[in-house]
Amino acid sequence: MLKTFPTGGVHPPENKLTAGCKIEILPPPKSVVIPVSQHLGAPAVPVVNKGDKVLAGQLIAKAAGFISANIHSSVSGKVLKIDSHTDTSGYKQTAIFIDVEGDEWVPEIVNGSDPVKEIKLSPEEIVQKCLDSGIVGLGGATFPTHVKLKVPAGKKCDLLIINGVECEPFLTSDHRLMLEKGEEIITGTRIIMKALGVEKAVIGVENNKQDAISLLERLAGKNGDISVQALKVKYPQGGEKQLIKAVTGREVPSGKLPLDVGVIVQNAGTAYAVYEAVQKNKPLVERVVTVTGKTLSRPGNYLVRIGTPVSALIEAAGGLPDNAVKIISGGPMMGKAIGNTQVPVVKGMSGLVVFSGGETERKQYGPCIRCSKCISVCPMGLEPYLLMALSQKVLYEKAGENRITDCIECGSCSFICPAYRPLLDYIRLGKSAVVKMKREKSMK
Asked: Model confidence over 58-108: pLDDT tens digits?
């Protein structure tokens, strides 16, 4: 019987329209806009100025503190300016504007497509390389990878889990990466194992990706250090706590981290980025993005430079259909609508989903009918109806007592609600208020 997490979960239509589309390399655009904050933590500090010439792979903004990440140029050209620009969240933030001139890379980067399997760096050097290369979690959270690889004193990690679940509907970037860069992901997994000092790793993949499961099992070989775990298809199995429970049976307590149960989770795309950084000296300057939607004429998976405008991806996918009304950055369950197509691709952008009017129309919501469906599907065992009510009434202290910060914002509650109530919208509002309150109290 296939493993899965026991609490909650839903089964939205998969709509993996691009699962069979090979990764296409998108050429550099005429200009890029590279935000200095593409990660959790402090924004990076620019180290270039207007008029500077830069190469692809060159450091252009340096990490500001332990929880931060370096930013590198994804193109070669001239720095036009350092100014504010609207990002995928709709807020303005500092970004570095570069006009593209040719495609010249820093000489330290190793060229060639042949996988390099021998791992020569020490654990400390691997962590430093991840810091230098600006590697962050590519599953969406964008937590700086070098921080995750440093196990604090008093803590112990005995298992690495590589997250190849990709449970969000429509998205297939990780699936294609596992199929086309499987050897590199296996080597990247062993690099992370070496950095953590663990002897076992499990790659978790949902059972709707049988081709990836078979390939990774073959590539992992018979050493026994890396195994592949097929998982039952259920959303949101890609959540760290849900994946850990499914694979190991270990429960991450409320308010705790995976490391508290001896586990570190890294995304499959992150494992590939670590491979490129350690084995090829290549910083994180590009990523695979799924561009999809039922009305797109040419949906696909594209390897794209960071800072490329979303409009270039939409054009590569056949252009914006006449009936398109919304573009989601990420998947339809956890993603967020973007305000315009000039926002840039960032490290955490796994996909763009284009929806027509009929697909996104919100129905008029009614009163809660006390059906308890939102409770039954919540993977964190919360009471979404109550958290929404508390947030509506600005009872944030009470919301905090009812564990609103444990919400992983998966949207299962809103998906299942027969009254179409905007549960997640209000929970997000309340959660951010509670987090702010806790931060202010800790600073007093």
From this structure: 999 999 988 999 999 999 999 999 999 998 888 899 999 999 999 999 999
Q: Which of 16-20, 111-115, 215-219, 261-265 has the lowest mean pLDDT?
A: 111-115
Whole-angstrom Cα distance, residue 401 to residue 91?
30
Answer for the pair 158, 193: CB distance below 8 angstroms, yes or no. Answer: no
Distance separating alpha carbons of residues 255 and 215, to the nearest angstrom: 36
Label residue 442 by pLDDT band (50, 70, 90).
confident
Residue 222: DSSP 8-state: T
User: DSSP secondary structure string, 415-435?
Assistant: HH-TT---HHHHHHHHHHHHH
**What's the pLDDT tens digit per position in 328-351?**
999 999 999 998 999 999 999 999
User: Which CATH architecture describes the domain 123-280?
Assistant: 3-Layer(aba) Sandwich (3.40)
Residues 6+ apart with CB under 8 A from 126: 149, 191, 192, 194, 195, 274, 278
Which pLDDT score is estimated for 90?
Answer: 85
Yes or no: say if 178 and 138 are a contact pair by the CB < 8 Å rule: no
Please give the Cα distance from 145 to 138 (Å, whole number): 10
Rounded Cα gap, residues 339 and 260, in angstroms: 39
Model confidence, pTM: 0.96
Tokens matching residue 231: 């998982």
Domain positions in the chain are 123-280, 373-443
- The alpha carbon dihedral of 425, 430, 436, 438 has a sign of negative
d(CA 166, CA 192): 20
Strand partners, 72: 59
Burial of residue 101 (number of CB atoms within 10 Å: 0-12, 13-18, 19+): middle
